[in-house]
Predict the structure of Endonuclease/exonuclease/phosphatase (EEP) superfamily protein YafD.
Amino acid sequence: MNRLHVSDRFRLIDLALLLFISFALTMTLSMIDPDLPSNQPTSPVSCEFFNTSGQLPQELQVVNWNIAKEPLAKVREALHNTSVNLLVLQESAVDEGFLFSPGHRALETTGVALESRVSPSKVCHWQSFEPIMLTPKAAIAASFPIAGSEDELLVINLHGVNFSWLLGTWKRQIRTAALLAKSHKGPIILAGDLNTWRYERSRFIKQVAEELGLAQPAYVEDNRTAPFGYPLDWILSRGINWTEVSAPNAELSDHNPILATGIIVTTAAED
C-alpha cells in the first residue's frame, strides 16, 4: 500500500486552505453592495405619458408569474383555462403585446412585462444591478384608467435583486417602487418575484407594505415557491377586494403562478 508522504499531506492542507480562502473571499464579495462608478445600483426612473380611451373593468383577473424565460406561447397554453385581464410576468421575453422593461441580456433579452387589453396612461421603467456581477434586474410601473371611476390602477411589476447580502442595493430597488406608490392616490398592485428568500427580506417587504397601506391577500391554496421557507413571489395591494387568490403547482417554471380574482374599489366618476 502506498503511504502518503509528509510533504504530500502538507500539499493537501495547503490546497484545502486555498479552497477555503477562495470560498471565504467569494462569500465576502457577494456581501458587498458597491456603488461602482460604471453603473448606478439603481438607474433613474424614466416615465412616459399617453392619451388613452380604454378602461379596465372593475372585475380584475390577475396572474403574477416568473416564467423562467419560457416561451410566451407555452405560458398562454398553461393559462388557457384562466380568464386574465392583467398578466404580470418576470423573466419574460420581449413581445409586441406586452409593456416591457428589459433586464438580463444574453442570447435574448428578458425582463418584466405587463399585458392588458387596456392601454396605460403612464408607464415608468427602471433597472437595478446585482452587486459585483452587475446583472440588471428590471421593474415597470403602469397606470390604467378604471371604468366608471376617476381613479387609476397603478400596477408595479418588480424582479428583485438576488445577491445583495447586506440588502443595500435590494432595499434601494424596493424603495424606488415605494416612492412611486406613495405618489399615487388610487388603487395599487405591487407584484413580482421580489426575491424574499430569507427572513430579513420578507420582514422588510412587510414593513414597506404597511407603510404604504398595502395588504397581502388570503390564499385559498398557497404553493408559492419558497426555497428557504420564505415565498419569493408576491401580490400586495390596496383598494382591491380579492374574492379568490391561489398559487397552484405548475410544471412550466421553477416558480408557481399566483392567480388572483377581485373587484377594484373606486371613487365614482363625477358627472
